[in-house]
Fold these 2 entries.
Entry 1:
Amino acid sequence: MKLSTNHKILIVGLGLLGGSYAKALTKKGFTVTAITRSPSSIDYALREKIISKGSAFVDEELIAEADLVVFALYPHVFIEWIRKNQKFFKPGAIITDVTGVKESIVGTIQDMLRPDVEFIAAHPMAGREVYGVQNSDDRIFEGANYIVTPSQKNTHAAIELCCDLGKTLGFAKVSEISPKEHDKMIAFVSQLTHCIAISLMTCQKTERLEDYTGDSFRDLTRIARLNEDMWSELFLINKTQLLHQLTLFERELNSLRCMLEEDDVEGLKSMMRYSTARRALFDKK
Amino acid sequence: MKLSTNHKILIVGLGLLGGSYAKALTKKGFTVTAITRSPSSIDYALREKIISKGSAFVDEELIAEADLVVFALYPHVFIEWIRKNQKFFKPGAIITDVTGVKESIVGTIQDMLRPDVEFIAAHPMAGREVYGVQNSDDRIFEGANYIVTPSQKNTHAAIELCCDLGKTLGFAKVSEISPKEHDKMIAFVSQLTHCIAISLMTCQKTERLEDYTGDSFRDLTRIARLNEDMWSELFLINKTQLLHQLTLFERELNSLRCMLEEDDVEGLKSMMRYSTARRALFDKK
C-alpha cells in the first residue's frame, strides 16, 4: 500500500519527534491531526498550522477518523494508551510508532491489538537535545536513517506503507530488520553510546574543564544531556542486549589499556588503523 | 611583550595546524615563512600566498630571520630538530609549539635550549580529521580554546607574547596552566575520549551498521579516524595520566552497569540528571 494524501494521519504525543512528523507531513499536503497531553502544545501546533485539528484529551472522533496513527510516547504510556483506547480505532487503521526499543513493544502491542487494526513498528533515527513541539524541525530527518521492524504478523501492505512514510518524511535511508535485530543493533549504536557519554560526563568532578575542552570532548558528550525518564526506561527494557554490548566495549577498552601498559606501539597503531578504516564507512554521504 | 606585525614568524611543520596558523597570521598582516619536509606543501603555500618564503630543507637564513618560531611537529621530531638546529636561531628569538602533551616536552626542550632563546609552550585545542596544508583553514580556531603552559623558566614577556598569538589567531579563549596540569586535563578531555572512540569503533565487527546509525554513534566516533603515528606517540608520552583517567572512566561505566543489572531506576535517573546538568556547561557560547 502506498501512502497517499487521502490517508488521514493522527499523531499521538506531540513532542519534538511528533511535531517534526506533523511539520513534514503537513508540508507534503497531508491532513494531520494530533492528540497530546499539553493544551499549549496543541495551541502552538494549530497556530503554526502544522496540524489541522488537535486535542489535549483522548478525542474519540479524531481517533476514529485516522487511517494512520503515529505514536510518539514513552513505551509504557504507549502500551497503556492502546489498552484503554484501541476500541476507538477505525477498522482497518494502521498504527506505527517511533519507540527506540522494539522486541517487547512489538510483541506486547501486536498481542493485545484488535484483529482489524495492524501495528507496524518503526524507529526514526533522528533527534535533538531539545524537547517539545516548539523545537520541532523536519530537517532532522535529512541524511538520517529510518528503520522499519516488521514481525511475522505484519502484512506486506502495512510494511510498504510504513517504508513509504519514512521516505515521505525525508529520511535518507529506509531499512527493514526484525525487532530482535533492531534491539541488538540499537543497544550498540545508541544505548551503549549514551552510557559512555553519561559516564564520561560524570566520572570527573574537576571544575572549569570547559575552558580547556576541545571538540572531541564536546562531541563525545553531546548526548550526555538527556531525558532521564525516557532513557532509563529504554535502557531497562533492552537490558540484556545493552549489558552484552557494554561487555564487548569494556573488553576492547581494556585491551587498549593493556597495550598502553606494555608500551605496545605496534598494537596501538594497528588498532588505530582499524578504527580509522572502519570509521570511514560511517560518514554521511 | 605584545605581538606586532614587525615580528617575523617562521612555522616549522606545515600541515593542517601549521598551515592554518600561516593562513590566519598572513591575513592579519604578518610576514610568515615556513620550513617543512614536503616540497609540494611549500609550493602550495606559496601559490596560495599564505607564506612569503618557504623551504623544504632546514634553511639557516629563514631560521635566523625569525623572531617567533612555531613548531608543529611530532614530539620526537620537534626535540631532534631543536637538538640539531638551535644554533641557527636569532639571539632573543621566542619559540612556541602546538604539541598535544606538555610536561616532558617543556622540560626536555627548555633544558637543552640556548640561554638566549626562550621556549614558551602552547596547545591550540583545534583540529580536524583531515591532514596537510591543503586542508588548512583558520576558521578551526573560532570558538576554540588555546592553552599556554608556562614553566618556572618562562619570562612574563614571552608568556604575554604567546597569549597574544592565541588571540591573534582567533581563539575564543586563551588560558594559562602548568604543563603538569595540562597533561592531567588533556588525558581526560582528549586522550581518554580518543581511546573510547577507537574502542567503540573496533569492539564490533558487525557489517552494514552504517545503515542503522544515528548521529550519536557518528559523534562518538568522529575522532576514531586518526593519525596512528601521532596518537600512539602522544598516548605513550602521557601514559601515567591516561591510565589514571581510563581507570576513573571504567569505574564510572561499571557503576552504571551495576545500576542496570539491579534495575536501579532511581540511580540511573540521578546519574543522568547529573550528566545533563554538567554537560550544559560545555556548550560553545
Note: The radius of gyration of chain B is 21 Å.
Entry 2:
Amino acid sequence: MTAKKIVLLILDGISDRPCPALNGQTPLQAADTPNLDRIAKQGICGIMDTIAPGIRPGSDTAHLSLLGYPPHEYYTGRGPLEAEGTGIHMEHGMIGVRANYATIGPDGLISDRRAGRIHDTAKLSRAIEEGVDLSAFHVTCTFRSGAGHRAALALKGDGLGSAVTSNDPKSTGLAPPLIEPLTGSPGDSQTSSVLNEFVRQSSEILADHHINRERKREGLLPANIVLLRGAGQMGHFEPFSTRYGMQGSVISAAALITGIGRVVGLTPVQVPGITGSVTTNLSGKVTAICRELKSQEFVLANIKGSDEAGHDGDPIQKRDFISRIDTAIAPLLALEGTLLVVCGDHSTPCSIRDHSADPVPLAILGDGVRIDRVAHFNEIACAEGGLTRISGGSLMPILTDLVDRAHKYGA
Amino acid sequence: MTAKKIVLLILDGISDRPCPALNGQTPLQAADTPNLDRIAKQGICGIMDTIAPGIRPGSDTAHLSLLGYPPHEYYTGRGPLEAEGTGIHMEHGMIGVRANYATIGPDGLISDRRAGRIHDTAKLSRAIEEGVDLSAFHVTCTFRSGAGHRAALALKGDGLGSAVTSNDPKSTGLAPPLIEPLTGSPGDSQTSSVLNEFVRQSSEILADHHINRERKREGLLPANIVLLRGAGQMGHFEPFSTRYGMQGSVISAAALITGIGRVVGLTPVQVPGITGSVTTNLSGKVTAICRELKSQEFVLANIKGSDEAGHDGDPIQKRDFISRIDTAIAPLLALEGTLLVVCGDHSTPCSIRDHSADPVPLAILGDGVRIDRVAHFNEIACAEGGLTRISGGSLMPILTDLVDRAHKYGA
C-alpha cells in the first residue's frame, strides 16, 4: 500500500528546552499526548533542522524551507508574504510592505503603536486604498487589513526597489522618521518617496475618517497613522502543483502562513474562530483538514498557540495547550491513504521567549513508512528515530517519494 | 591494526518498505541473515541516502555517487556507461547509445521490442559494425552486443551532440519514429542524422543476414531492426586509482555497472554463470571477490537479483534471495586486513515496483571501525547505528580514511 495524500501539520514553536517549572521536562514532554505518541509509535520519527543546524528560523523562512522553497533563494522579506496573506495577489516584481495602524498625538509623537489594539479595520483600509493617489509616481497601490491592527500595502510600478527603512520608531514617545533608501539605487529612492507620500496621504484620510471621530467620542485611541516596515520585492515561485504534482490547501490563522501558502499556489481555507493563539478553534481546524482532503492531495495546517506561549515564556500554558492540541487531532489518526506528518517549524523555548535553532521533532505516520522504535513524540525521543536528523529542505522530497510522486534520477 | 583493502558489496535494491505479505516486515528483516547480522554486530552501521534525502536514484547515478563521482557532475546519460559495459572503450567526447535488437514486420510496425528475447547476438553486431559506413558524416562507429537482446553503439566524430530522441516507439504495433534533435544545436542535428543513417544501414544488413534467415526457418522472430535510446556524451573521469590511490576490480552481471566500473578505471572481472537475476551464480561471485583481493586493493561487487525481485513486486522471492545471498557471502567474513562494506544502491520497494528514495542500510566490518550496538542488518536497525545517516558521496572518503589513505587537510 502506498499513501496518496499528505497532511503536513505544523505545530508552531512546539519544541522547547528543559523548563525548571516542569521539573526539567520540556512542555511537549510534560504534556498529555496519547495521540501524538501513537503517531510516533506507529510511524517513523526524527529531528529536523528546518533551515540548517544552528540557524534560528523565522516562521516565514521555516515554512518556505519545509515546503521546499529554500529561503536563501526565495525569501525577500516578510512584506510580500504578509500582503499575500491579506488577500492581495502579488505579481512578480511588486513591492509588499507590512503595515500597522497606530496612534500619533498632536505633538507628532507616536502614542500607541497598535492604535489601542484596534480591529475590524477593513473600512479604514478601503478608504485609504481608494483615496491615496500615487499616479504622480506612476505607481498604483493596494492596501488591505490583516488581523487586529495589522495591514499590508502593495505597490505596483516599474523599477521600484525594496531596500528602504521603516517609519516605525519602534517605541512610543518618538516621532515617526521619514522612510529612507538603504542604497544609492534609484529604485530604492523611488520606493522611499512613494512610501512617504503614502504615509502623508493616508494620514490625511485617517485624520478625518468618521471611524476615528467615533473612536475619540468613545474614548478610544484613533488609528490615525500607518507605520510601514518589512518592504520586500515579490519573487517568482514555481507553483507547488508544478513542483510536486499535487494540489493543496493551507489552513492557518496567521496571515503570514496563509500568505506563504498563497504564493506557492495553495488554496487558503477560512475556518471560523481561529485566532492564532491558545484560544483558537482547534477542532474547527481539524475538521477543515479532513474536509479539504476530500478534494485536495496536500493540506498544510499551522497551529500557532504553542509558539505564542513560548514567546510569553509560559511553560505551563504551553504544556496545557499542547495537551489540547493532542485531544483535537484525534480524527487525523483515522485518515486512510494519507501520510500524517507532524512537526514544528522551529523551537520557541520559554527560557528565551523567542525562536531558537534547536531541532524540531518530526513524525510521519502512514502506509509505507519504516516503523522505528520511538514511542513518544518529543524533542528527546524523536532524536532516536529512523529518520535520524534531517534538514527541512529534505522533507518534501522525502514525502513526495513516500507518496510515489518522485522522479528517478538516472536509470 | 588497520585494514588495507576494501570490498564494497552492493546489494542492488535490497532495502524495502514494510510488506503486508511479510507481516509488516521488509524482505531484509524477514530473511534469514546470520552473516549479514554478524557484519552488523561486529561492525559499524548506518543508513545512507546514496544521492540525497528524497532523491530516487537510478542504479547508474547511485553507483557513481557511491564511488565518489557526484552524478550531477559526472552523469551524462546511460548510453556511454552501457557502451563501456559492452567493452567499448569510450573516449572523452564520444557519443554512447543504448541499443535493443527488435523485430519489425513487413508493415513497418514493431512486432517485438526484444526480437523474441534473442541472445548471443555477437555475430549480428559484428556484421553491423563492419558493414555500416558513416564516413560521409566523418564519423566512425563501434557496435557491441550486451546481455540478451541488448547492445550499445558508440560514435566518434567531431562536434557530435547527444540531445536527440529515440527511434523506440516504446510499444509494439507502432512504427519506429525518426530520431530527431532536441535542440537547435548543429551537433544534435548531426547526431540525429548519423543515427538515422545507422538504423537504415543496419536494417539492410540485418534483413539479409543468415542468422535471421535461420531464425525465420525455425519459427523465431528475426532481429531485423536496432532501436536506439539514452544517447549521452562521454565525460572525463579522473581515474579511481588517482583519486584514491588504490587499484580495483568490478564484478557485476549488469553491463551498466561494469561500464561504470570501467569508466573510472576498475578492471572488469568475468564470472561464469552470473545473470543479474535471482538465478545468478552467487558463490562464483564471492569466489571471484576473494581471488581479486589477492592482487587488488579495492573490489566493487554488485548483486542484482534483489532489485529484480523488488521490480517484480515479489517480497517472498526477494526475502528468499536475500537469505541465499547471506549464505553465499560467508567466506567474505573471514577476510583479513580487509574492510567489508555492505550496502544497497537504492531501495526497490515491492509495493511500488521501482526504486525509491528510502535510505539504504550500510554496515562496515573490519579493523579500526567503531563497533556500535546494532545487531541486525536491516533498514530499521541500521538507522540506530554509529554512522547515523550519511550521504553516498561520503562513503569513499570514510573508507579511504579507514584504510589510512586519506590526506590531512591542514596541519
Note: The first strand of chain A starts at residue 5 and ends at 11.
